[in-house]
Structure formats: structure tokens, C-alpha cells
Amino acid sequence: MHTGGGGVGSRMLPPKQLLTIIIVIFSTLSFIKLLLLTSSSSGASSPRSPAWDAGGGGNGTARSALAAKELALLRSLVTARAPCRLLVFGLSPQLLALARLNSGADAGSGAAAATAFVTDSAEDADAARRVLGGGGAARAGSVAVHRARYRDAAAEAWPLLRRARGSPACRRPTGTVRKSGCPLALTSLPREVLDARWDVVVVDGPSGAAAGEPGRMGTIYTAAALARTSAAAAGGDDMVDVAVHDVDRTVERWYAWEYLCEDNLVAAKGRLWHFRVGASSPPDAFCNTGPVQIL
């Protein structure tokens, strides 16, 4: 005999009400998940406090950073010569780290490291000096930062090269670069740069990323001239290592072939070429071969 109609069945919710509750629960969970994702992504994209961006270039223009394999080649080059006299055209956190690499090797060595950076960016120079002042890269006494003004835009590369080829003053230097009459020579640089003997020279500046920006014609020519005079000053036995970045660009490729020479290319990684320059070459020319044919 049935008396009350089943206690369990009477406690079950109607299917429609149960479905509504399930939808509300899932909607609430989805909303909470969305809030968590939004909070996480906004925190990740918020600007980080200071930043001396490795990709920032002189005059506020973009400069391509060294790729991992290019930086590895550059680091191995400096490590092999350290402690040495290192000259760098260009300035970024990646390049500044080479100073630490160089100066860190003079502990227990009879030689002292010296690193000099040349940049046209006041912002980069100030940032580097702040890092050096805090002891973040190397001892400030072994690292110098020099400002330079580059007068020639990248668009002038071919006319300048034509004039240089016709000028006896632009042939292989026989004396100090500071007294050169070649318009490509950066004779306004400090004596500490032009009269010194260098073991390694790196060219990664100025930007040269656009036709109207300062090009690297002068820095590549000056690097080649300093390498020749440094090798000659060492008695002709020592070689000077020169690295040029961004050789995928026309100006860097032209001028590297013209003044650092195909015969001297010993390694390449990505957009970085490594030349080893000695004193043995024609007395009135940079390269053993004739000038590069540019079509």
C-alpha cells in the first residue's frame, strides 16, 4: 500500500531547474578564469622599469641586436685574446658585456685589459656610464666611452667609395690615422682611440639602418686603418681581429670587402664577419686583390 509517494523522489529537483543551476555554475567558473587570464596578461605586458634596450640605436633609431650565434662568435673572439685592447664602434648592453669579459681575464695575468666604446648616442653613452659607475660591467678605469659625430649618411656610401678609390690619401695608411687626409678616416676621434694600438676592433655602429642615418663607411675604414697600423706597430707578427656586424646590408658588405679584404675573412656567423688583419699586404693598398667590382 503506497502512503507518501517515495521520500527520495520527492527531494530531486526538476530537470529544468537542475539545468539552470549547472549553467550558472559553468558561467561563474568561466568568468573567474577570464579574470585570472586578464590579470596575468596585463601584468606580463606592463612595461618593465628601466630599460636600456639592446635593440635601441643611436639617435633613437632601431639597431639590430646580435643574434645568439653572432654573440657567441664575438664572445669567443674576445675571450681568445683577453686581456687585450678592445675597441668597439657601437654601444648596447650586449656590447658592453664584452668589457666584463675582457677585464675579467686580467686577474693573474701580467697584461691589463683596456676597452673603449665609440657611440653617437648621448643616451647610450649615459646609460653605459651609469652601468660602469655601478660596477656592473667592468672597472670604470679600464673602460672608456667616447662620443662621436658621424657626418656621412648611409646614402652617400657609393659616392664616397668612388672618391676614396681615386684618392692617394685613402690608400693603406703609413702613419697615424689621426693625420690621414682620407675623408673616410674619423680623424676627429680622441687621441686615446686613434693613437692607440688595438688587438680587437668591433664595428656595430653607427646605426646605418636607413639611407638618411649615419652610415658605417667611416667606422669600417677607420677600423681597417687602425688594424693595419696596430699590426705594423707590433712588428708585423701580431694579427688584429676585426668583426663587422650587419654584413647582410650593402654598405657594410661593400666596405668590408674593400678595406678588410676577402683574403682576411676567417669566420662568419649570421650577419657577423670576422677578419684577421696583419701587416703583410701591398705597401700602398689595403688588399692583395684589386678593388671589388660593384655593379
TrEMBL record:
Keywords: Membrane, Transmembrane, Transmembrane helix. InterPro entries: IRX15/GXM/AGM. It comes from the Eukaryota. One of its GO terms (biological process) is xylan biosynthetic process. It holds the Pfam family IRX15_IRX15L_GXM. It is a single-pass membrane protein. The chain crosses the membrane at residues 18-38. It is found in: Golgi apparatus membrane. GO terms for cellular component: Golgi membrane. This is Uncharacterized protein. It comes from Panicum hallii.
